[in-house]
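chain below, 189 aa
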Amino acid sequence: MRNPYFFGYGSLVNLATHDYYDPQPARLKGWRRAWVQTSGRGISYLTGVPCANSEIDGLIAAVPGADWQALDLRETGYDRLPSDGAVQHEMEALPEISVYAVPSSTWVLGGERQPILLSYLDVVVQGYEQVFGEAGVAAFFASTDGWDAPILNDRDAPQYPRHQPLATVQRDLVDHHVDAIGAKLVTAG
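prediction:
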């Protein structure tokens, strides 16, 4: 039995946040990313959103023995969906590939926007920089919606459970793109 794979488009691109094997760059056609809010969470989460004329870069990795339990737990609040062949990759084999997305039925629309944790964004950008370089980071920001949510600067006391230390150049790269998109940065406390 061949192992299934997941397609990650956010923190799962950062290899320091998981130990799934055979990670490799891939592209998901027909999707964009968006920061969305759900009830009871208090922060915005990154999700994939079907969008016919879009595509996003990410990472695929194997789920040994189809043991999805740990990954499903990590991705609580997300549905695991079949990618229906929309993932382009360099593998000769064609494994089953799933993608996680926050169900739109759980989104909270309108009202005051819940913040994006900067420590979460840092992890995502660090992964994209390591896998796709600076051009990949720019593409991440361009293919993601929801930047009207404030970004909570929690770097001094990271709230994101899988936060990672960033090199100065990585921190500067995040800050540059946050400034370039005109995002509203707010302080914790």
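Strands lie at 5-8, 24-37, 44-62, 79-82, 87-88, 97-101, 116-117, 144-145, 151-153, 185-187. The longest helix spans residues 118-142.
thats it, cya
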